[in-house]
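hey so i finally got around to running the thing on that chain from the lab meeting. sorry it took forever, my laptop kept dying and i had to restart like 3 times. anyway pasting the input first so we r on the same page abt which one it is
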Amino acid sequence: MIGPLANDKHERFCQAILRGETLAQAYVSAGYKPNEKNAARLKKNEGVAARIAELQEKAADMAAVTAADIARQLDEDRAFARQMEVPAAMVSATMGKAKVLGLIVEKHAGPDGGSIPVKLDMSHLTPDQLAALASIKIGDE
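ok and heres what got predicted. didnt touch it at all, straight out
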């Protein structure tokens, strides 16, 4: 782990890149005078490049949520709704899980007002996701 850079401007530059700013914008955000060539040179700096990669990896880890994670959360929500005796919330959680797992595809109207045909493809699902599909109970539990 590299951690924050000792040079505050370099660290601010890395953070700005992570926020999606262009090299030129990030360079100015870090406190430098506008200079596209220097911005490009700074990004190639070994420490700066490693810090940007580290920040991007952390962001990716935080954003990585699988369909199985969401399905598990929806199961918990449904159990809570059942405990609280809120049928509409139970149905909502069940429908949400079915959508996440690809069992329900919402139909959308095409430009002419007719529905757009949708093919359900589950070939991308992992064995865990397919098992989660198989565990869905229909009706009262």
